[in-house]
Specification:
Elements lengths: L5 H13 L3 H14 L4 H13 L3 H14 L4 H13 L3 H14 L4 H13 L3 H12 L6 H18 L2 H31 L1
Helix pairs in contact: 1-2, 2-3, 3-4, 4-5, 5-6, 5-7, 6-7, 7-8, 7-9, 8-9, 9-10
């Protein structure tokens, strides 16, 4: 490996992230950023993987640096809103998410951050309504649909609609079964061979 070439470290880190080797990929991205601190793609990838790994302080630091370099990056603003929502800072989450939506009207992450903020603020009916609007989107991935169902179930439970909340959890579980059963069956068949 070329130890002083940030692009090489960035490519290696990105490849490892795609392979699911997140800790090593993040270490490679950090090396790229040590060599070239303003490498925007490396900052974005390091922020995203730090968030997935639950390293919210690092994720926030990287996303804030992205915003310094690219102040109109709606995805990074939405991610900062999601971090604020996870930290139970609903006012900050809502403010950042609304800025993100002004830049990118269809930001799923920003909508989810506002829904989480509503729930934290004791407004479960508003969170439920927002999640129902999101469920109507045709572009939701299975993972996004699961996240929406989970948040709506929390809102329904807070409203006192426990049966409806459990129906959402059952729907979520059905998606998970549909998604993972073929993988588990294939893995089981491979073990038998």
């Amino acid at each position: 490996i070329a130890p002083d070439e940030p692009e090489v470290w960035f490519c290696l880190g990105t490849m490892r992230l795609r392979q699911g080797i997140e800790a090593e990929g993040l270490a490679d991205l950090k090396t790229a950023l040590r060599l070239q601190p303003d490498m925007l793609p490396a900052l974005k990838n390091a922020a995203a993987v730090s968030y997935r790994l639950g390293h919210l302080t690092d994720a926030e630091k990287y996303y804030c640096r992205v915003m310094e370099l690219a102040p109109y990056d709606g995805d990074s603003l939405a991610a900062l809103a999601a971090i604020a929502a996870r930290r139970l800072k609903p006012g900050e989450a809502r403010r950042l998410a609304e800025r993100a939506l002004a830049l990118q009207r269809d930001s799923f992450t920003a909508e989810m951050a506002i829904g989480r903020a509503d729930l934290t603020d004791g407004l479960p009916e508003r969170a439920r309504e927002r999640m129902e609007r999101l469920l109507g989107r045709a572009d939701l991935s299975d993972d996004n649909r699961i996240a929406v169902l989970d948040l709506r179930a929390e809102a329904l439970d807070a409203i006192g609609l426990t049966d409806a909340a459990f129906a959402d959890y059952r729907s979520r579980n059905a998606i998970l079964r549909q998604k993972f059963t073929p993988l588990m069956e294939r893995e089981s068949a491979e073990r038998r061979v």
